[in-house]
Design a protein that fits this description.
alpha/beta, Non-ribosomal Peptide Synthetase Peptidyl Carrier Protein, Chain A, eight-stranded parallel barrel, two-stranded antiparallel ribbon, globular
C-alpha cells in the first residue's frame, strides 16, 4: 500500500472526518483538557470518557458533565455503556441536546465493576443485545452509531465476527476492534490479524462501514504498521497518547510520507504546563494539580534524571509548585 494513501478522510454514517487518526475513549483520561490538548496536537477525532446510560437517564449532574464539548472540539463522539436497554431511550433524550457527531457503544471495557453489570466487554456474551441497542439509537436519533468491542470474552469464546454482524444488523455505521480478548485485559500482545479478518468480513458481505483498530499503538510508527498490515481504515491511540499527545502529529506525518518532528524535553515541559492550565480552567487549581500528577509522570517517562522532579510533582498542589518542580527540565 502506498504510504501517501494511508492518511485519509473517513465517513461514519452522515459524519465525515478529515483524517483517520483518533484519540480513543479512556476512562479517567479523555476529559475536556486532555481532548483539547490532543486536538491541538493533531487528533482528527475524539471520544468522551465512558458515559453511563443509566446515569444519563437519571440526569446525574456528573454524568451529564462528561458530555460537555471541548472549546476546540468541532467533532466528537459520546461513548455510552449499558448492560441492557431499559434506560436507553431516556438516556438518549438527555444526550441529544449535546449533538455529538457519533454515539459510540462501549463493548470492550474489561474492568470487573463494569462487566458485572453486563456492560463493557460482558456485552459480547449477548450479541442480540448489541443489535437491540444500536437499533434503538438509530430509531430514536439521526446520530451515527459506532461500536467498540474486543475479540471475545476469552480465548475459548472469540466471537468478534458474530458480534460485528450483530452490530451491523442493528445499523452500526462503524466498528472499532481492540484486538484482545476481555480476559487478556491489556496484557501483551494484541492480535492484529483479527483486524484483517474483520475488515475482510465486512468487504465480503458488502458493508460500506469503516473499521478502526486499537491495541498496542504505543509509537507513531505503529499507526503505519497497523494500517499497512491489516487494511483497516483508521487507528485509535489509547494508552500510547498518555503523556504523549505528540503521537498524533507524528503519526500523521509518517502516514503522509514525511519525517515526524522530534520531541524535545522542552516541548514536553511546555505541554505539561499547557495541560495543567487547561486542567485549572476546567477543574480549579487544587483538583487540577492533583489530577495532573499521573499525567506529568507519563510525560516524564523515559527522560533520564527526572526522579526528583516526579517526587516534587506528587506533592504539588499549586501551579507555582509545578513551575518550580519542572524548572530543572530547562537544563536537561
Amino acid at each position: 500500500m502506498n504510504r501517501k494513501h494511508l492518511y485519509h478522510p473517513v465517513t461514519i454514517g452522515s459524519t465525515t472526518l478529515g483524517g483517520n487518526v483518533f484519540l480513543a475513549p479512556l476512562a479517567g483520561y479523555t476529559d475536556i483538557p486532555f481532548r483539547t490538548l490532543c486536538i491541538e496536537a493533531g487528533a482528527d477525532f475524539t471520544f468522551t470518557e465512558m458515559v453511563s446510560a443509566e446515569g444519563l437517564a437519571r440526569e446525574g449532574e456528573k454524568t451529564l458533565a462528561l458530555m460537555d464539548r471541548a472549546p476546540n472540539e468541532r467533532q466528537y463522539a459520546v461513548q455510552l455503556f449499558m448492560g441492557n436497554t431499559e434506560s436507553l431511550k431516556e438516556a438518549l433524550a438527555q444526550l441529544q441536546p449535546y449533538q455529538p457527531e457519533v454515539i459510540d457503544i462501549n463493548c470492550g471495557c474489561p474492568v470487573p465493576k463494569v462487566t458485572k453489570t453486563g456492560a463493557g466487554s460482558a456485552m459480547m456474551k449477548q450479541p442480540k443485545l448489541i443489535t437491540e441497542v444500536v437499533r434503538t439509537i438509530t430509531d430514536e436519533t439521526d446520530i451515527p452509531v459506532s461500536v467498540k468491542f474486543r475479540t471475545g470474552w476469552d480465548a475459548q469464546s472469540e466471537n468478534f465476527l458474530e458480534f460485528a454482524q450483530a452490530a451491523l444488523d442493528g445499523g452500526a455505521s462503524a466498528l472499532t476492534l481492540h484486538a484482545r480478548t476481555r480476559s487478556q485485559g491489556y496484557a501483551p500482545f494484541a492480535d492484529w490479524s483479527k483486524l484483517t479478518e474483520l475488515k475482510q468480513y465486512t468487504l465480503q458481505h458488502n458493508y460500506q462501514v469503516p473499521i478502526f483498530g486499537s491495541g498496542d499503538l504505543f509509537k507513531a510508527e505503529d499507526a503505519k504498521r497497523m494500517l499497512e498490515e491489516t487494511g483497516i481504515d483508521g487507528v485509535m491511540f489509547a494508552r500510547g497518547s498518555i503523556g504523549n499527545p505528540f503521537i498524533f502529529s507524528q503519526a500523521k506525518a509518517i502516514l503522509q510520507g514525511r519525517d515526524p518532528e522530534p520531541i524535545t524535553v522542552e516541548m514536553r515541559r511546555v505541554a505539561i504546563l499547557r495541560h495543567l492550565d487547561l486542567m485549572i480552567d476546567t477543574f480549579g487549581e487544587t483538583t487540577a494539580c492533583t489530577l495532573m500528577r499521573k499525567h506529568t509522570c507519563s510525560y516524564l517517562k523515559g527522560i533520564p534524571n527526572t526522579s526528583t522532579i516526579k517526587q516534587a510533582v506528587v506533592h504539588a498542589s499549586r501551579r507555582e509548585q509545578y513551575l518550580e518542580a519542572l524548572s530543572p527540565l530547562v537544563d536537561l
